[in-house]
Amino acid sequence: MIITQNMGLNLLIRKFYLLIPFSILLSIENINAQNQEQLDFRDPSEWPFTKHSIWNMPIGSDANYKDAKFQNARYVGIDTQHIIITNNNDPIYKAIDSPTWGPGRCSGSEYLGFDVPFPKEKIIHDAGNSPYGNTPNANFVIIYPDGETALEGSKIARCKKNGKVYFSTFMKYPNNRKRINIKKNDGVKGVRGQGATKMSALGGTIRLGELTGKKPLRHVIKINPWAAKYCHYSSKIPGYKWPATKADNYAGNSSHPQAYNKKADPDIVMGSLFAIPPNLKPQDINIKTEPGKILFKALQDYGMYFTENAAWDAWNIIAEEGVQEEVEHKYNIDLASTNGIWKDEVNKLMRALHVITNNSPNSIGGGGIPRRTLAPDFKNLSKVIIRAKGKSGKENMRLIVGDKVLKKWINVKKSYKNYFYKGVLPCNSNTVKVEYYGDDGPHKELIVDYLKIDNTIFQSEKMEINTGAWDNDSRTCGKSYSEKIHCNGFIEYKLRDTNFTSITIRAKGKSGKENMRLLVGDRVLKKWTNIKNSYNNYFYKGVLPCNNNTVKVEYYGDDGPQNDLIVDYLKIDNTIFQSENMDTNTGAWDNDSRTCGKSYSEIIHCNGYIEFKTINKAKSDTDNDFDLIRLQDEYDIKLFPNPLYEGNDLGINLVCNEDNEAFKVEIFTLSGKKIFSSKLKYPQEEKYVIPRHVFSSEGIFIIKFTNIKNVEKPIIKKILVK
C-alpha cells in the first residue's frame, strides 16, 4: 500500500498554496516545519552542498510511502569513507595508479596525471590489511585548502606515512577527476565517489560526532543493501534511478553471483530513497540505544539512499572514518556486529523503512511541506594567516579580535611559518591583534612578517600600534611600524577606518552609451548611465551586508554589437579584484558555444554581470601594488616594466619557496587570441625575458601563469604596451 502523510490536511494545504506566491510558500513551509529548530550558519566541509540538495532536503508532506518489506540481515556493519581535509601546509603528492582491487593497492607505479594535497602522516590501509574489511570500497573525498573545492573517488590507498597516494586507474582520465564546489554543487552534478552509482562520497556520509550526540545528524544518510536480494533489474529499469546515474556493471549479468534481482520490487533500485513513516515512534519498534534513536530520527526526517552493494546478507551504514571507534568508546557498541543489540536495532530500523515512490528532481523527498527546516546558509568564514617566527622557538602567540581570543599558538618556530585560523570574524571589527605573551627575557621575541585576512595582506611594519616593540629613545616597550614584538604586547592591524566600505569600479564603454550597476545579492546599490569610452573610476561608499561573499558589476540595456562594457577591476577598500581573474561573467561572448557566459574576461558583451568573489577564492592585488602577485604564499611573480614601452623587453621575476616548480606562460590579446606560449622553471629560470616584438601592437594584453601542480587555478595579469 502507498500512503501519504496527513492526506486530508494536505488537500486543504494544496488549495491554499495555489493562492499565494512561491516566496511566501517557502516561508510558510519553514514556519510550519515539524520540530523546527533555530539553525546557525554552516561550514561546507562539515555540512556540504546547497540547501535544496538531495542530501539536505527533508522528507516532504506529499511523500508517497510504500513498504519496502526488508528483512533481517545476518550482519550489520560500516562502509568507511575517508574524508581528508587539507590545509596549505600539507605537501603535494603525485597521484599513482592502484592496479588491483584486492591486496596490492599500493604496488602501482603509473602517474595518473594529477597531484593532490595530502596530510603527511595520513595512512589508508591496503586491502587485506585493513580494519575496514578485506576489500573495502575506500571511497574518499579530498577537501582542498580553500574549504570549498573537493575531489571524490573510490579505492584510495596510502600504505605508509609521507608515501605515495594511490587512486583507481580510471582517474587518469580528466573527466573522472573533475573537482566540485561543495558550497555551490547540488550533490548530484559531477559527483562520483560511490563507485556503483556515481553518487557523492561526501553527501549522506555520517560524520564524526553525529551518532554520539556531539553534533546533530541533519541530513540524508546512505546504507548499502545486498543488491542481489533487494535491487530490481530489467530492460526497462536497469538497476538504478535518479539521482543515481548507473548501477554495478554486473547488475544485469544473470550469470554473475551478485546480479540484481529481476523479481524484486521495481521501485527498489540503486538511487531509491527510503524513510520511516511519520506516524511511527522509536518506542513502537523498541529502539533503546542513543545511536539507534539518532538513526531513527534521521531516517524519518531525511531518509536514506541506496548507493553501493554490500554484496552479501548485510546492511552496511556509510560513515566517516573514526565514527565506529567513537561510538564504541562512548556506548560500548560495536557498529559491525553479527549479534547483539546493535544488530537487532538496525534490523528493526530497516524493517520499518518504506520506499518514497515519488522522489524526483522536481519533488525531492516527495515534495510538500518539509519535515524539518532547510539547511542554513554557509558561514562567511574568514581565513586568517599569521606569518611569524620566534627568536628562541619558545614564544607564545595569540590572535585577538576585540577582547576575544580566537586562537593560541605555543612554541612558535624559529623560522618563518604560516599559522592559520579559520572562522567568523565580526563584521563590525575594524582591528585585529596579534599578541606575544609569556615573555621572560631578552632571549625571546616574536617577529610577525604579516597578517593576511582572506585576500588582503597587512604588513606588520606598516601598523602604527605595536605595544611590545622596544623603543630605544624612551627605554620602554611600545612604538610604531615594527614587525618585532620584544616584550609582552601586540601589533594592532587596522582593517578599515570606519564601518563604511569604499568601492571603486574602473570601467569604460565601447560606445560611451553603456549602463552599469553595482549589486550585492539582489540589491542594487548604485547605477551609472552613459559610461565614458575611456577608463574612469566610478565610486560607491556605504555599508555592505555582513553575509555577502560576492559583489556583481552588471551591464544592462544592451542594444547591439556597438555596445560593450569593459570592467578593468573592482576595488573594495584596499583590495583590488581583477575582472579577468573572476570565473563568472554571464555577459562575455563565448565563441565556442556562440552564447554569452564564460570565465576570466573583463568584457561584458551582452546583458549580464561579472561576479567578484570577495572572500576566499578570488585572487586580488593588495595595497595598490599592481605588479606583485602572491599565490598561496608560495610564489612571487613580478612583471617589469609595466607599462612596457618601445625599446624595452618584458621581464618576469619569479621567486618560489620550493625548487623544481614549473609554469606555463601564455599571452593573449583582449579578444582572446593567443600570441605567445612558453614554459619556465624555477630556479633555472628565476628571471625570464619576453621580447618586445612578441606584442603585436599597443594596448592591453593578458598574461596567464599556470603552475603545473595547480592547473585549475591560473594566475592572470595584465600588461599595458605603449
Automatic annotation (TrEMBL):
Residues 384-463, 503-584 form the Carbohydrate binding module xylan-binding domain. It comes from the Bacteria. This is Carbohydrate binding module xylan-binding domain-containing protein. It comes from Aquimarina litoralis. The lineage of its organism: Bacteria, Pseudomonadati, Bacteroidota, Flavobacteriia, Flavobacteriales.
